[in-house]
Structure formats: C-alpha cells, structure tokens
C-alpha cells in the first residue's frame, strides 16, 4: 500500500518537478556508488596503470590461493574492512582514487605473511618480502608520484595484519575481526556435519547395488 501511494504521488508530480527530483536522487546515488568505484580507477592507460595491474593480479591471487584458501568470506571481509578504513582516512586527506592504496594493502598483507621469501625488483634489488611495500613506495617517489597513497595502503594493511595475525596471539589478546555470518553463508562452502547419518538409500555403498538390481529387474 505504501509503495502504491508513493508511486501515485510520484506520477502525479508535474513534469519538470518530477524530472528535477529524479535527477537529484540519481545524482546522489551516483555519488554513493563512487565510494566503490574509487577503488577500481588506476588512472589513464600507461606504465603506472599496467604496473599496478600486474601487482594487483599477482598478490591478490597469491593471497586468495594461499593464506585465504578455502576462506573466501574472510578474504571478502578483508576487502570491506580495508575499503572502509581507506575511505575514512581518504576523506580527511582529500584522496578520492584509492585503487593504488588498495593494491599496496594487499601487497603488505601478503609480504608480512611470507616474511622469508626473497624478492628481486627488476634485477636491481634483492630483499626479504616484508620490504616490498616500502620498495614500491620508493619506486613511486622516483616516478614523481605522491607517496601519500602508498603510505595509506601500508597503514591500512598493517592495521589489518596486526588485528588479524598479531594481537590474537599476544597474551590476553583475542580475535577482533570476526567475519559476519552472512558472508560465510554466501561465499563459503558449508562444512559437512560429522554427525550426519544419511538414510540407507542415500549411502554411496548402496547405490551400485540398487542400480544393479534395477538393471536385473528391467533388462534391456
């Protein structure tokens, strides 16, 4: 009933009033949508864009296939947690495009979880994995880019790493980042109940016997 009343009121508006009101609502919705799309923009096509895409693909994939293997909901929650903090900090720092910061966050988390891997940067530098985010920040500085974006990604990555991997293992510490149940329901495969006792006709060992009996009863 409320929907019908709203629809009648909307359709009853004069043409100009309805068009202007609709444009205002759609524009506001588009601004809210930009809170998501600002993580998807990496600037114009060029060296910086392809450089970021390579690192995004490589380290996002290694995280998902490594420490987050079988934990898709936790991986999505890291995206949401990191995106929320970056948006919050970005508003204070007037940063509107956060795709590079998000990539640095992924690199930071991966590097801290793989501290003994040796890295080689363009054949010029050899170092342990935890130094990789700082090497990337130095490379951005050499290209003349602002390092604020890189520092934001490192800061958010460190906050997540500390709350997820460090603090729970400290004396008196506990796990603070708990993945919501609805994310687990959507993204994770339900675990099999070890106490589940299937019906006799559903047990695998009975299926071939049943099939053989059916073939004997109904010969071709």
Please, could you describe this protein's structure?
This protein has 220 residues and is mainly alpha-helical. The protein has helices at 2-11, 15-37, 47-65, 72-93, 99-113, 132-142, 148-166, 181-187, 207-217; strands at residues 118-121, 125-128. The protein has a two-stranded antiparallel ribbon with strand order 1-2.
Would you tell me the structural class of the helices and strands?
Answer: mainly alpha
Fraction of residues in helix: 55-70%
How confident is the prediction overall: mean pLDDT?
78
Percent of sequence in beta strands: under 5%
* Alpha-carbon Rg, integer: 26 Å
Distance between the amino and carboxyl termini: 61 Å
Shape: globular
Query: For the report, how would you describe the main beta sheet?
Result: 2 strands, antiparallel
The number of E-state strands comes to 2
Order of helices and strands: HHHHHEEHHHH
Count of helical stretches: 9
Taking pLDDT < 50 over at least 5 consecutive residues as the criterion, the unreliable ranges are: 209-220
> Which strand order does the major sheet show?
1-2
Descriptors for this entry?
62% helix; mainly alpha; 220 residues; disordered C terminus; 9 helices; two-stranded antiparallel sheet
Topology of this structure?
Blueprint: H1 2-11, H2 15-37, H3 47-65, H4 72-93, H5 99-113, E1 118-121, E2 125-128, H6 132-142, H7 148-166, H8 181-187, H9 207-217
Antiparallel strand pairs: 1-2
Helix pairs in contact: 3-5, 4-7, 4-8, 5-7
């Amino acid at each position: 009933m409320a929907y019908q009343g709203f629809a009648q009121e909307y359709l009853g508006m004069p043409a100009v009033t309805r068009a202007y009101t609709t444009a205002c609502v759609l524009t506001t919705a588009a601004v809210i949508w930009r809170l998501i799309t600002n993580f998807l923009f990496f600037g114009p096509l060029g060296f910086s864009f392809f450089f970021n895409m390579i690192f995004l693909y490589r380290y996002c994939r290694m995280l998902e296939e490594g420490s987050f293997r079988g934990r898709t909901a936790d991986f999505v929650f890291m995206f949401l947690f990191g995106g929320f903090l970056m948006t919050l900090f970005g508003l204070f720092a007037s940063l509107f495009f956060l795709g590079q910061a998000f990539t640095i966050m992924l690199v930071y988390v991966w590097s801290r979880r793989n501290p003994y891997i040796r890295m080689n940067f363009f054949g010029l530098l050899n170092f342990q994995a935890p130094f990789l985010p700082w090497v990337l920040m130095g490379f951005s500085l050499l290209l003349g880019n602002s390092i604020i974006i890189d520092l934001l990604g490192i800061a958010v990555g460190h906050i997540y790493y500390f709350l997820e991997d460090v603090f729970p293992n400290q004396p008196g510490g506990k796990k603070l980042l708990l993945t919501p149940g609805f994310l687990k329901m959507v993204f994770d495969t339900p675990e099999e109940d070890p106490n589940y006792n299937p019906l006799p006709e559903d047990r695998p060992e009975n299926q071939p016997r049943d099939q053989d009996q059916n073939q004997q009863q109904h010969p071709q």
